[in-house]
Specification:
The structure is a homotrimer of 666-residue chains. Chain A is of the alpha/beta class and 666 residues long. Chain A has 18 helices and 30 strands. The radius of gyration of chain A is 26 Å and the shape is globular.
């Protein structure tokens, strides 16, 4: 698209009264130029098997077109109608908890052919009807697709074939997964048990990978159908989402975003995050970096919060701050879920831009200022190009493997380690791309952060070694390299191949109790020097020791090391340190990689994000993520602050309101 | 009945040895003049299908009659025999957890015709046998009846018909419940899914209402059978119970007590409550006010605790205090569950008046003094008439709706708000009746407290507005008026129609963090001024603001308001305040309603309850709910302290022992 | 066996590469002279139904024999192969949670004849093949056998027959279990319901006893098969385990160890325990005393930890301390689970003597010193004979009954009371045997500690009275004697028959809140004088009161009493006291019983254990269970410290390193 899109999810079908004209009037007033429709309302559009009623789609398309508002049409396949379940109860996914129960969305078996038959039919009916409508700019296939833990007999059967395809013989399978243990050997393919009850982490992790592949296949299948109808200029996107911990926290366990995004034209995402005093911009940044990295270019925020929950109702200024933060990560669209708060059912307290009274309110009033600024600044802000020299490597496989072999206590999981690293880079204003094990672009970066890469092939570890050898900088945490791609622990010295680049070895690990880093080596203060959850008893081979453990018995071992290897350096963090220590370790690596600049002299809550606009100029966003006004000396070349349309000189002091934004083009 | 009844539940069938004569001897010594029998022992009375053995009933009736002890016979239908379940496993209720398992009581499907067939037969056999026995004064139908979450196919089918009867068309149903959401529309009655998995709060709440109707019908059906045998002078009662939080806490979610009580002659109830240092009398008062209000007259306490749990074993004096507290709320009966502690099975540690040794013990010894006083004072204390000018409005519908749309954190539920208001009125010695949405007597009161009336029809809200307009005083809490009777949030300004009487509007609400009421407006101290869990951002229209929020961003909004409307006032509490603040708000309303008198100058732990006896004299009970002796100046006209049979002059100082009681007739 | 066995569980089948020669080389270096094999790997040995492959057994036996390492062969029956479950899904135990799922070990129905058929076949095939191999010294039948909650229809049916056999008539059953309660009477055997849903504690406890009998029968059946092949000199053992609370905590609820051990030649056990700063030796001692008592002689520690969990990785010295502690309790074998850490599946982080890298590590290096010392000192340390004069009486029946009728709060269960007593005796270096209700050797002891003997027959209580009468000393805790063998609470005064010996009575009990023992009667300090969880309101008849409660209302009652009865004394602890108070009460009894000697002048963390070796000399182990060096004056006759091979004179000061050991032969 050629302009910034400011949108809302719109549900004419949910309205308690006739509102279309009034809604469009209020949307226009708020600068809304996009709506997404239809993705949740199959039972309205196909009220009975084979009976179709797209009247609400038609009238919304016509009215939006007349108002100049663009429309994304979603395929309504993630929530199945009552008639389908009544006719074919087995469209519901059988999960480890048993057969499904009708009620919620996202409860069907995405591998069930009955479901697929009906899904294909409604997709063809809907898309063929709307594809020529001038309001339609693109399509969203399904919504927040996952595998919903589907694991019934049909899925088990396909999994057996998938495993046979992969391993060829039961002997190789038994060996790779260690199935001799507790008499789990599968000595004939017919004996393959349902893996629902398995206690073998390798088998369980492989099944999770297979389930993620079902998602990839499902989305590719939907996209291929929609592509048959897609007009030139239209796009297909999908609304990915993240590991949910009450908000968008980290890598999605149930979908391989990189694989699944391949079929799409544009990557889309929903990003939800804490607000009020807990608003930090971290999720906006992480979600944006992750989604931008899927296809290496701009992306859509297909859903984000307007008022949402009572504890997220934004303070004055926060809605603006959030909107521009999305743009600063490379989003070309900010779309709220949703326009109007819903009066019944499950998400009644997940509020939209309008409250239940459907009139103006302070959040809506603030949206009006955003709509105005988006429209005015669109030519300068759309299609922001970013070129980051740092990256973080994330892995679905490592995540699943660590869920099978959790850290003690169960509170620190894979994504906590990811965020421990990511958030520190964010706080020091280091722009980051997100890599995955299949990425072939390691060499484009100077620094790669590698959190808890627990399950990884020798090939991947060798590539990382090569990256260092060639002059790259890597910071690893504990657990990296421990197991191979089959979640088989390596039988040699730990941490596997990367031990070479890191210059370190260990064969014992313990749970720290009252352990600190000896002598506060990073100067963060004794109270920040604690080690928790996990510690490996490192013996440096060639590495320099950055920190030793302080403990009566484990004091002989290193905690954090750094090793020159080829032209680069590899840092190894053998324990879970405090955030402050992790920040210092990464700061050291950022400096070694030559990435420390003027933006790094500022730090959270003062956040800087930058990129290049279509005119080739540098756009720098300055965000104040705090409840106090803040100021800073603008360190770059003379430019223009776009929101105020005011010249800014190098070195000039820029003042930011609490939760304030400035955008400098230079 | 013509006298105070002091009773015990008696289970000859549970005795480990022949004890009837000795039990009766000990009962007489304790002044016990009533026993309830037979309600739990179907398998004894019908040991095999169609084989009856009422010998234990016969011998107990005869022996009791001879001893002058009256008997209530319970229908034994709430615990089914093994033979029935073995023959017909489907008599067990299918619940959301699956098919039932034999073992406990209250596990059958009260809508199952097989169960109903056997239930009717045992009722007719038992009641026809005992109805002419001179010991029998009345009947208890079933016991603590609820719907036991029955929700199998037969119940689902009846629910569909019930919904169709109510809404007529699927279109009206879909609209009222907002079923378009997440593709939940039901476009043909045949498609109606089991609601067990529903995520639609309107549908779920309607099913809960339907389940409560099953209870009403079941009890009316049992009563109609017993009525065929009932002699003149005999009564039918039922033992209702409350929301159980380890004790009788609040409104029963699963039964509409008001509807279910219509078929009965006398309302009965069980009331269990904390004891020892936690004894406050609040549950006795709340349970009593609730039950008295069912039929607007005296009621039976069919079960209450003797020793019960280890942590409830009463301190010396407490059993007496409790017994007279029941009378003070209008009870004509105090009956212990149960006579003797049981030696096996599930409630072994729920002890009776006798311990397992079946001999005297300190609790039993104290009961003897109660029995003596009851017998002596019965003519003065029986049939106490109460005429309260304050009321509290409770609603099963609001309770269920708030369970579907819970307050943040999940710790504060409907009954917590009910008790937050009720307990404050109790502490200031304001007598209270309990109203329900169907009550037609609002105008008999000067003050109505309305906790969290979340789901309510326009008609009900209009009636409340009218009550204020005509000079009444209402105190509402947050969430009142928010949704209609179908749990559909109102699409207009909040709090719906009552916003008019309250002179206030809001369309945003947040979760308070570090929020207080600005400037301690009620003088309760800063540390008591906190706001928790919920706050609505109120904008006063015509209302006076009693309290503003103290918060950097929400300080512009009102927290508690008061509005003159017609001849009355409406107070709106838009947040969850501390108990002290709620007390002050209610005190202000009590004074405005002209209900502040001499009794309000005393306060908890000094509790005053009053009423009029059959001689037309005023009876005033004074209770010391504390472990310290207390005294007060008796403020009313000259009278007689009945326990000591001593004259009391107006203004005279009355001393109460710790956990002590005085009763003044004047 | 004629020498100390130092062993490891060895799984050639789990190895990721060919390692047998290297493993044996490293074993020999560590002094390992025993391996246990084959107990977990049925699917390797019978890869398809009726197809057998014992090649890994053969080659290990041959190689071990060549190396002079002895082998125990386990029957591989506790983990079933995939083919069996695929052919016969009903071999999986149906439990209260439903049908079984394949995956883990210990999931089959040990009463299922299909399972038993295949189990018998593999046992015969395996044992017949190995029995003549010179490396084989004995057999382990199954592993950590329990009943796995099996409770499907076949088990229910057998239970009915078992109950009928026991009670003869339904009338006697109904009476003994109090089934009249809540209409649970069984009036015809055909009506017997599945007890899975029962709420009757007597019935539930009887079923648990029946399930324990299934275990006894199963182990006896396996043993009888193995016995057919056993050569002279070979033995059959089993690896019992304890109640698991993250480690071996107390009496095993699901197995009657005393009954089950009868069929075996030698008792075996696994003992796992906290380590690092939490290492106390208590579990080693408790587990050892328990297992030694099963057959009244030496036993095998068939599994104990090497590195195990990250939080158990031993500090330097601890592995040695643990090994000698096992010997000091009478073990003739210390065997680690397991040799090498496993690279896949469920117990990857339960590490063996070798880490995953299969090379040396600090723990392995310490094992080498143990192996050397075991070999050198075997003639002096093997077959240590112990003769204790104190005992503790434990009861499966009391444990189960207290699970049905738990103490308030649910945190203090039967084994907590067992350990509260046991650990105090351990800390004061009093050697203890473990008795059970069926023991006929009460009279061999001077002191019996009786924790919470909640369910016990009159016969047992009378035997305990007789023991006191004849001069014995008993210390009872609260709850003892309360219910009979059918978990029917006694209808007479409490604590039943033992009230006579204890000279005390009660009929009320409460939950203590802010209750202490009045005046700190044991001089442990006020802060240690608290009473928690449970208190009985004791009235002394003939007893002396050792402690009164301090409470405004319960102060009239005794808490702890002591009574002279015949020639002995009975102490009754009517409440849950602090550990310090329990220690003082037991110290008083130990002194009264004449068991206080020089060893009692030392105390934890200085632990003394002693016995007689084959040469008739006294062996005394001194252990320092602390992280500080300690010293003491050696109080016994002149002897030799065996580890240093140094003479020790009476009165000489012996120094122990932190976590140090000394062994004096005198």
């Amino acid at each position: 698209m050629d302009e910034l899109l400011y949108g809302v999810a719109y549900y004419d079908e949910y309205m308690p009264c006739e509102r279309l004209d009034e809604d469009i009037r209020m949307m226009k007033e708020a600068g809304i130029n996009l709506v997404r429709i239809a993705e949740s309302t199959w039972s309205t559009h196909e009220p009975q098997n084979g009976v179709f009623d797209f009247s609400s789609v038609d009238r919304v398309l016509d009215a939006m077109h007349e108002a100049g508002i663009r429309v994304i049409v979603g395929t309504p396949t993630y929530a199945v109608p009552t008639w389908m379940v009544k006719e074919h109860p087995d469209v519901l996914a059988e999960t480890p908890d048993g057969p499904g129960r009708y009620g919620a969305r996202q409860i069907m078996d995405i591998a069930n052919p009955t479901y697929l038959f009906y899904a294909e039919r409604i997709i063809r009916k809907l898309i063929s009807r709307v594809c020529d409508h001038p309001a339609v700019i693109g399509y969203q296939v399904d919504n927040e697709t996952k595998h919903y833990r589907t694991s019934g007999p049909n899925v088990q059967l396909r999994f057996v074939k998938y495993v046979r395809e992969k391993f060829g013989t039961v002997e190789r399978l038994n060996e790779a997964f260690g199935l001799a243990y507790w008499s789990n050997r599968i000595n004939s393919w017919e004996d393959f048990p349902s893996v629902v009850g398995t206690i073998n982490g390798s088998l369980g992790a492989e099944f999770a990978k297979f389930q993620r592949r079902l998602v990839t296949e499902f989305l590719a299948w939907q996209t291929s159908i929609v592509n048959e109808y897609k007009r030139p200029g239209q796009f297909v996107t999908h609304n990915f989402d993240f590991e949910w911990r009450g908000y968008s926290f980290g890598v999605q366990p149930d979908v391989d975003h990189f694989e699944a995004a391949k079929a799409l034209d544009i990557a889309g995402v929903d990003i939800y995050h804490p607000s009020q005093d807990e608003l930090t911009g971290k999720e906006i940044s992480f979600g944006g970096d992750s989604t931008r990295s899927l296809k290496g270019t701009n992306y859509f925020v297909l859903e984000t919060q307007a008022q949402a929950f009572p504890n997220w109702t934004p303070y004055p200024g926060q809605l603006r701050l959030q909107a521009f933060s999305h743009l600063a990560s490379g989003a070309d669209m900010v779309e709220y879920w949703h326009w109007h708060s819903i009066h019944n059912s499950f998400e009644t307290y997940w509020k939209g831009l309008l409250s239940h009274d459907l009139g103006p309110n302070p959040t809506y009033d603030e949206a009006k200022t955003i709509g105005r600024d988006f429209a005015r600044l669109s030519p300068k802000l759309v299609h922001l190009k970013k070129r980051n020299r740092a990256a973080i490597l994330v892995s679905n496989e490592a995540l699943t493997a660590l869920d099978w072999f959790p850290l003690p206590g169960g509170n620190v999981r894979y994504n906590d380690v990811v965020r421990l690293m990511y958030d520190r880079l964010y706080e020091m204003n280091v722009g980051v791309d997100v890599l995955h094990p299949g990425s072939d672009s390691f060499e484009s970066y100077d620094l790669i952060a590698v959190p808890a890469l627990y399950a990884a092939s020798d090939e991947l570890l060798a590539r990382l070694n090569r990256f260092v050898e060639n002059g790259g900088h890597v910071v690893y945490t504990f657990k990296s390299g421990f197991a191979d791609e089959n979640v088989q622990v390596r039988a040699g010295a730990q941490p596997g191949l990367i031990g070479e680049a890191c210059g370190v070895r260990y064969n014992q690990f313990v749970e720290p109790k009252s352990v600190t880093l000896k002598g506060d080596p990073f100067g963060v203060g004794e109270e920040q020097s604690g080690v928790s959850v996990w510690m490996e008893l490192l013996t440096p081979a060639t590495a320099d020791v950055l920190a030793w453990y302080d403990h009566p018995h484990w004091g002989a071992y290193a905690a954090i090391t750094e090793n020159r290897y080829g032209k680069g350096t590899a840092t190894y963090v053998g324990c879970l340190p405090n955030a402050a220590v992790m920040g210092k370790v990464l700061e050291r690596a950022v400096k070694a990689a030559g990435l420390w600049g003027a933006d790094q002299e500022l730090s959270f809550p003062l956040i800087v994000k930058s990129g290049t606009n279509e005119a080739g100029k540098t756009i720098r966003y300055y965000f104040n993520y705090s409840d106090e006004p803040r100021a800073f000396a603008y360190p770059h070349g003379d430019g223009t602050e776009l929101l105020s349309d005011r010249a800014v000189r190098s070195g000039e002091r820029i003042e930011l309101d609490r939760w304030g934004v400035a955008i400098v083009e230079a």
